[in-house]
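#struct-help
A.M.: can someone run this one for me? Single chain, 593 residues.
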Amino acid sequence: MKKLIYSVVALLAMWSCSDDDNVTAKPDIDITGEVTNVVQVKADLTVSLSTDKACYKPGETVTFTATGTIPADAKVRYRNGSEVVDEQAAGGQTWTWTAPDADFTGYLVDVYRTEGDGSETVLGTIGVDVSSDWTRFPRYGFVATFDASKTADGVIEQEMAFLNRCHINGVQFQDWHNKHHWPLGGTREQLDEVYKDIANRDVYTSVIKKYIDVQHSYGMKTMFYNLCFGALSDAAQDGVKEEWYLFKDTGHGTKDSHDLPDGWKSDIYLVDPENKEWQQYIADRNDDVYANFDFDGYQIDQLGDRGTLYNYYGGNANLQRGYESFVKAMKERHPSKRLVMNAVSNYGQYSIAQGDVDFLYTELWGGEDQFSDLRDIVHNNELYGRHELQTVFAAYMNYTKADGQGEFNTPGVLLTDAVMFALGGSHLELGDHMLCKEYFPNNNLTMTQELKDAIVRYYDFMTAYQNLLRGGGSEVAAEVSSTSDVKVAAWPPAIGNVVTFARQLDGRKVVHLLNFMDADNLSWRDMNGTMPEPRLVEGLPLTMKATAKVNRIWVATPDALGGAVQELPFKQAGGEVTFTLPSLKYWTMIVIE
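D.P.: on it. Structure tokens below:
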């Protein structure tokens, strides 16, 4: 089916997709090639797919459920990248598949049929993550309300079913606790059935336990939230000592504090996270938590750069050093539990990474509000984490718009997710509602059905292609151009351009095209929800530098065909490869093998 023409001398060239490795074809070597016959793919996405878990261990049984009519001649195909690893006839509305033995691998599963002319019609798709450890490819979500409304039949189940459909494999429990210094509602021996959180909202112990049970049934892991250094105004009666606090003066006259609204329980007063007695105290309180709730770990928080602070004895406090010490102390006390720590505006991230955290979590603010900042943070985190720790962004969309009631702006959300995912990060945004403020219970903005449907496709895409998106490799230059009037330019983003970002890994070059042609600003926050929907570009002619033999070019996008693979015809000559991109809406990924 494929017609390949190569000069004899081309066989002497070793293939490398990298454009920044300073390797240039010698003048007397002319690599030429052509692929013309590829299967044409179209979509009729009338079949919705779901799985029984958010992620699977190697060899585990995956159960699929389909909604919609599946033709008798349809097949189910399982792909890792472009490689078909398994295929079977589609039999009925439910079926099972044994996950392959390869660990930490993503798959795109599609139900399709072959037409009389040899083309394929994709009917439905879904991503599958086969990973024995969720922190290798974290897709982090949250829950933030635990009151009586969550005791109604089916509420929690419905919320978690949506998170499962988005393959959320870890869930942060925000504002679930009684007090920062005494998180448990009640005592280890006697829990309160209902208690108040910091904002004096009701928290039902039974709701917390049900959330944990339902999440565990989907294979999700659960993380309880708390600061590393928070104490309320009544902390002394609970055993917190004055000598543990952080102060704004050398004479321990004024405690550092985080002020909260009137009507809440208390402001939060900061203790020194490096203080060994405090570490022991809060680890004891965590013992109480773990004894009563089946949490899988601790989501540690901080409050960013606090300026110059002092300990009780007048010495300079070193918060960044304290974060590393605190993380190590928590791991030593509970070695089987997972740890994640927030780096507010990436403050202290290097020190946190030297502790024993399972991935790097960065909360973004106004100082990091540009799309270009996202790449810088991912790049730095890769260095801090020795290329072993993934990046999760806590990043709040349509922040100003969320001061009132309304709906999320779909183009703003999708463009931000496209950039984050293409760069190799993920986005904490999905929970019992979609996140719009740092106060996680705020649900002023709602998701339209259009956004819900699109988000499912984006999380399918991030899951299915996780090895290409988050599997390492090195950043390289793309060197892509077009003969059309569409301006294609290298990173960083610019309004009016299609922007490229590329990585080289495992003998493949992965090039992302991100559509900023109609963007009204370059802030990922889309503060007021004004980011316009980008125009759809179809049939875009592209030329890319390629100084060694190209075997295959394929593309995939969450914006078309349910993310399914489309192999492309191409020509190679003169150190370049030319092909036509089928479509670009927000984001299309090109893979050159």
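A.M.: thanks! Residues 276-292 form the longest helix (17 residues).
D.P.: also worth noting: Residues 1-29 have pLDDT under 50 and may be disordered.
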